[in-house]
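User: Please predict the structure of the protein below. I'd like the answer in structure-token form so I can feed it into my own downstream comparison script.

Assistant: Understood. Taking the following sequence of 417 residues as input:
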Amino acid sequence: MEPSISCEQALEHHAVSRLAVTNSAIYFDENFSPPGNCISYDELKELKTEFAINLYRHVSEAENRTNLVVSPASVAVSLELLQFGAQGNTFTELQDALGYNVHDQSVQDFLHAVYEGATDSNQGMVVQLACSFFVGAGVQLSPHFAARAARWVNSSLQQTNFTDPNRTAAQIQEWIAGNLGDGDVHGMPLESAGSPLSQVALVSTMYFKSTWQKKFSFMDTQMLPFTTAEGSTLKVPTMHHTDEVNYGQFQTAALEAFSVVELPYLGEKLGMFLVLPSHKRTSLSQIESHLSAKTINLWANSLKRTKMDIFLPRFSIQSLFDLKTVFSALGIRDAFDPITANFKGISEQGSLYISEAIHKAEIEVTEDGTKASGASAMVLLKRSRTPIFKADRPFTFFLRQANTGSVLFIGRVTNPS
């Protein structure tokens, strides 16, 4: 439900924001902005989506042609929390990258609605976003910042001893494991946690495991061909069912055709959008180059209920990124510079700057264990006029909240095996 309060009312009252899940880790080494203009709910939806696409674009350029998943929600949570402690140009760069000022009450109300839906567990669906500050024993945090951090989307503050790097790394890994469900946490590089200069580490995680509104039946999963971006064909476990879904066909200005289908999760608060080029000769990057907040909004509003055959490969993706280069491309540069970084809102002690920025995301898409009772026999015969969505070649996916339009995950599958 969209907030009904006015800008004036928003600036008069204080809402408590709660935090929510993928792995981002940001390390600081040692070496209150005024509220912005009131932004409308629709503008914020567009800014959040634009950030998600910019992040994905920079990440995918570095990881050309591989499977990948990134959680814009998790990365944004870290940058929002940093805004509370940043000042001067460091704050401006963070604000410009996200597109909004987190001190603005209308922004906080919107983010509260976003993150409320980004921490949810029910009947097999797990959406879990969390954030923690690991603080060196000698660091005196600003009480105002500590209060902010403690109530920002499922956040916590924990003391650690950075002079014992093995213990610190183990402590952070243990926290990650506790917030990633059954997710694999190995391979999370924590080099800076062992630096004697490290004073604060910011780690955020996001984990998602899907439960479909209508489950696929294991009985209907078959080994079917999938053509990779390189042109080779392999057999992969491919799920199938016939259902009424939101579906649309589109074309770019260059007349490249593609189709979009939305598969809703239990409760229909979240949906996975799948974007598939219509012809094998059209590369996925040709379609992805047209991604924008406006196009995603257009797709979401233009899809029509259509009964069709869905063929979707089972897939599980884990991605690990060094975000330094990505943040730099997004215009966040001062934060990494020991001379120019200004995080005096976090602590007046010395000067803090970001030495490490890491992001880990994972997503698993399966039939969801339970057979679709009594429906299996009906799926075997396909009517010739039923349209088919067959993801037998590289496709893009994004997980989107229905009410806020927030993109929790975005990624691509180039090789399901």
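That's the full token string. Residues 1-22, 31-36, 182-187, 369-384 have pLDDT under 50 and may be disordered.
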